[in-house]
Design goal:
This protein has a five-stranded antiparallel sheet, with helices on one face. It contains two helices and five strands. By secondary structure, it is α+β, with helices and mostly antiparallel strands. It has one domain: SH3 type barrels (Roll), CATH 2.30.30.60.
Length: about 100
């Protein structure tokens, strides 16, 4: 009799607040693990691109290493070897490689 009563018991209705809480927790996890670090990295890259100056040695996102010889608002011309110049978009500069050294 007791087993039959337990088998016929209806499950409780799902709590809507629990569902909202779970989605909120998932969003917070994604925010702190994915979105926030990516925004921080993008902000640092944008700041680095704004502070580029003539004579800086840079590495493009394609892996080309060169020295900046000319800058415009949206373009950078880098010298990669003797008589070899490459014009790229500013946003395609991956990082600064350090101060250029002649010699």
């Amino acid at each position: 009799m007791l087993i039959l009563t337990l088998l016929q018991a209806q499950p409780a209705a799902p709590n809507p607040f629990g569902t909202v809480f779970m989605f909120g927790a998932i969003f917070l996890i994604f925010y702190f693990l994915l979105i926030r670090p990516q925004r921080k990295q993008q902000k640092a890259h944008d700041e680095m691109v704004k502070t580029l100056s003539r004579g800086d040695e840079v590495v493009t996102i394609g892996g080309i290493v060169g020295k900046i010889i000319h800058l415009t608002d949206d373009r950078v011309t880098i010298k990669t070897a003797e008589d070899t110049r490459v014009e790229i978009e500013r946003a395609k500069v991956g990082r600064k490689a350090g101060p250029a050294q002649d010699g």
